[in-house]
Specification:
One of its GO terms (cellular component) is cytosolic large ribosomal subunit. Pfam families: Ribosomal_L5e (PF17144). InterPro entries: Rbsml_uL18_arch (IPR057267), Rbsml_uL18_euk_arch (IPR005485), Ribosomal_L18 (IPR057268). The chain is of the alpha+beta class. The chain has one domain: Nucleotidyltransferase, domain 5. It is about 40% helix and about 15% strand. It has a four-stranded mixed sheet with strand order 3-2-1-4, sandwiched between helices. A hairpin with a 6-residue loop joins strand 2 and strand 3.
Length: about 170
């Protein structure tokens, strides 16, 4: 096994390419909760996480599976741009209800392409009232948020889900 000064092993999550510890440390220094957005092969996961020495504490969480309770169509994608927007919107409403009014965006190792699904979730958080530092140029436009590029029924589903989140 590797021993000695020149053969020191890195952390396992760094070796596997799962964590950028330098970026994570910069986010943790502020002491503000992190709005974590991850898009998997099947769904989106949005969480509000707070750092603790024994591990991160999840303050609020919304996944693509929980969108069904807000009236999201069963056959619709749970990782599309509109689904990410609704998940971010729901996360922000639950975070504000729990007493958290600001966060910073944590996208992990995902590419930061303007208008992407991660930034659709960010726009949902901002539209719901959560204060997240961002630039307006990275957010997707209204047509993509409403899902008119997919189907007209998705636009009505987005509005219905937002109303259900407001009422919950």
């Amino acid at each position: 096994m590797a021993h000695g000064k020149s053969q020191r092993l890195r952390f396992k999550r760094r070796r596997n390419g799962r964590t950028d510890y330098r970026r994570r440390m910069r986010m943790l220094r502020g002491g503000v909760p992190r709005a974590v957005v991850r898009v998997s092969n099947t769904q989106v996961t949005c969480q509000l996480a707070e750092f603790r020495m024994d591990g991160d504490n999840i303050l609020a969480s919304v996944t693509g599976n929980t969108l069904a309770k807000y009236g999201w169509p069963a056959g619709a994608s749970r990782k599309s741009v509109p689904a990410c927007y609704v998940a971010g919107y729901a996360l922000a409403k639950s975070a504000i209800a729990a007493g958290h009014d600001s966060a910073i965006l944590d996208i992990g190792l995902a590419a930061s392409s303007p208008g992407s699904r991660i930034f659709a979730a960010l726009r949902g958080m901002v539209d719901a009232g959560l204060e997240v530092p961002h630039g307006e140029s990275i957010l997707p436009d209204d047509d993509r948020i409403n899902g008119t590029h997919i189907d007209d029924s998705i636009a009505t589903a987005v509005e219905a889900a937002k109303k259900a989140i407001e009422g919950a």
